[in-house]
Amino acid sequence: MPMQRWLIAAAVTCVAAAGCSETPDGKTAQTTRRPQQAGSTRPLVTASHLAGIEVAGLTGDQRAMQGHVEAMHKDMMRSMHLADPSRRIDHEAARAAVRPLPGVQSAVWIDNANLLVMVGGGQYRSMATIDNVCLALEPLGDTLSVVVNVQDVMATTSEGADTLSRNCQLGAGERAMFQQKRQVDVLDPEVRRVFRAQQGGGSDPDPDLGPRS
Fold it and tell me: Which of 20, 32, 144, 159 has its CA 20 to 30 A from that of 188?
């Protein structure tokens, strides 16, 4: 019976893991690595931990049982979008990790949660750049506590000057628990668009960019 329970736990864990998927030709599917994502509690993962706890109880393995309980607690915290306070990211280490990335000119922390990354060129003002920044930060701690803000220092248009922001582990516009949204642009992008619309969409200078030569 214990062996059967181990097999069930292993099967559930395999189904929950991305690495167990196979292509039609029987080969393991390869996926492009993306930043860690926080979301709702995953039933299959929870089931695998419950099975593991039951097996650990039958075999008297207290360390394994504690490991499963802690993993379930961590999964619950992530489903609540609550960053792990024991894995705070060091700000200077983060800046050093981000500087070598393609297109990055500089990086500075606006506050404890918001990292402003300035890039040189519109092609780097993208969600792909935010993904790269988040991947670079993952070895340093829990990226759920970080909102990456990307600005193009070479922007020549109003839209190009808008800051692109996203929490590393959440969707656009979402924030972790207790993490407030911060206005990074000098002028709110929506206010700027309204201004341009009122001006007839002509070549009038943007209010936050100043007169153009």
Answer: 144
Share of the chain above pLDDT 90, in %: 35
Q: How many helices (H) and strands (E) does the chain have?
A: 7, 4
How does pLDDT run across 12-66, given as a tens digit for each residue?
444 444 444 444 454 434 447 777 776 655 566 666 767 777 777 778 878 877 7
Distance CA 37, CA 45 (A): 15
Q: Taking a C-beta distance cutoff of 8 angstroms, is the pair 2, 59 a contact?
A: yes
Which residue reads 């993993």 in tokens?
71
* Burial profile 116-152: b = 16 or more Cβ within 10 angstroms, e = fewer: bbbbeeeebbeeebbbbbbbbbbebbbbbbbbbbbbb
Q: Determine if the pTM surpasses 0.70.
A: no
DSSP classification of residue 22? B
